[in-house]
Amino acid sequence: MTDIPDFTDLLPYNGPLDQQQILARFQTVAKLGILRHALPDSYGGYADKFHHLCQTHRLLGVSSRDPGLILMVNAHLWGAVFPILLYGDERQKERFLPALLDGRYLSGHAITEPGCGSDVQAMTSRAEHDGNGYRLTGEKRYITNIPLANWLVVYAKLDGQITAFLVAKEDSGCQFSGGSALQACRGSLTGSVYLDHCKLGPERLLGKVGAGAQMLQRALELERAFIFAGIAGVMQWQLDNVIRHSRERMSGGTHLGRHQAIGHRIADMKLRLDTVDLWLNECARLCDEGKRLSLASAETKLYAAEAFLQSSLDAVQILGAAGLEKTSGLAGLVEDALAGRLFSGSSEIQKNIIAALLGTGEGYKPKSSR
Does 179 share its domain with 303? Predict the structure, then answer.
């Protein structure tokens, strides 16, 4: 395990951040080595465990209190770094992974379209054979790290099959736009990608033709499993802040926390945080042991997203009007927590996944009786 990073340069910000400030915070994360966990040392990783990744991301959340930055880091890791590691050829790994880990490149993945989100089979972006290479046409929306990203893993249908491609910001026929920016998670950027017969060489194909559905599902499983490692740190800060306030604030001649209604809310916040940590540890254990993650990642994302939202509401409620002051940092987390119920697949999608994996619900295909 590496030394614990010094997060001094990632302290919470006051007021809006411009694009260069957002990029600078990401590059600081890279400089601190936060991107190198659970990755082989042959490409610049620490060759440690997912357990260590969770520990460091949690500390990042406590220090930065910035779900946007956490979203930015996770889109980079699970959207591009791990797909290239798991599915790229040796030339792609050698070209991209060192630069992605040291912050020279910022990346992500492009799945969502104006007409489709979680239903990836409904995507209309298409790729066509063009000599030895390909041409991509389509529009992607709500893409984390756009327009700052240098590279994206873009999913499009080639011969009717979802396939992954490596697309650069400078590619002819490709435009990264700040359109579709979100109000929440202001420590990151979200934008659109427009592809107009974007010409790519054969080396830009990531994995095999038709393997895109499997690749993006694996990427989303990892993202769902670990994106709340950093947000658990934010939840820890919320809890610490609420406990401190409940001890200092007097109400009815006693400390605020002695009122049962307040004490129960704080107890619920603690229970939610500890349960999120248990789920994160279980996902890390499964990954470190090379076991399937599908069910645990959906359960983790579902529980953690709902827990973060409820604890964010409770924190504001306990502090009262002080929780709505801009300087408190608490009110903005409510918006961020609402986004948490949507990114990486909504809470409803996670329930569908869980039901299907249990042999019920939409997507379940019964075994043949023969």
Answer: no
Nearest to 128 by CA among 119, 138, 120, 118: 138
Instruction: List Cβ neighbours of 33 (8 Å cut-off, separation of 6 or more).
Output: 2, 5, 46
Distance, CA of 239 to CA of 33 (rounded, Å): 27
Residues 160, 134, single domain; the answer is yes
Q: What is the pLDDT of residues 11-27, one digit of tens each?
A: 787 778 899 999 999 99
Residues 187 and 229 placed together within one structural domain of the fold: no
- Confirm if 220 and 268 have CB atoms less than 8 A apart: no
Helices (H), the chain: 19-31, 50-64, 67-76, 82-87, 90-101, 212-248, 260-288, 294-319, 331-340, 347-357
Report the CATH number that the domain containing residue 187 is assigned in CATH.
Answer: 2.40.110.10
Distance (Å, whole) CA 144 – CA 127: 22
Q: How many domains does the chain have?
A: 3
Same domain, 73 and 190: no
Longest pairwise C-alpha distance within the chain: 80
Q: Mean pLDDT score of the chain, rounded to an integer?
A: 92
Q: What is the set of active-site residues?
A: 223
Spell out a b/e string for 323-353, using b for 16 or more CB atoms within 10 Å of the CB, else e: beeeebbbebbbbbbbbbbbbbbbbebbebb
- Verify that 100 and 134 share a domain, yes or no: no
Return the pLDDT at 230: 97
Encoding tokens for residue 126?
A: 């298409």
Q: pTM (2 decimals)?
A: 0.93
> Using one digit for the tens of pLDDT, what is the confidence trace for 79-93?
999 999 999 999 999
Query: How many CA atoms lie less than 13 Å away from 278 in the CB half-sphere?
Result: 8
Closest Cα to residue 101, out of 120, 80, 115, 132?
80
Domain boundary among 172, 193, 211: 211
The three-state secondary structure class of 12 is: coil
Residue 340 in this model has a pLDDT that exceeds 90: yes
Instruction: List the CATH number of the domain containing 51.
Output: 1.10.540.10
pLDDT reported for residue 366: 43
Pairing of strands 205-206, 161-168: antiparallel
pLDDT in tens, 157-215: 999 999 999 999 999 999 999 876 788 888 999 999 999 999 999 999 999 999 999 99
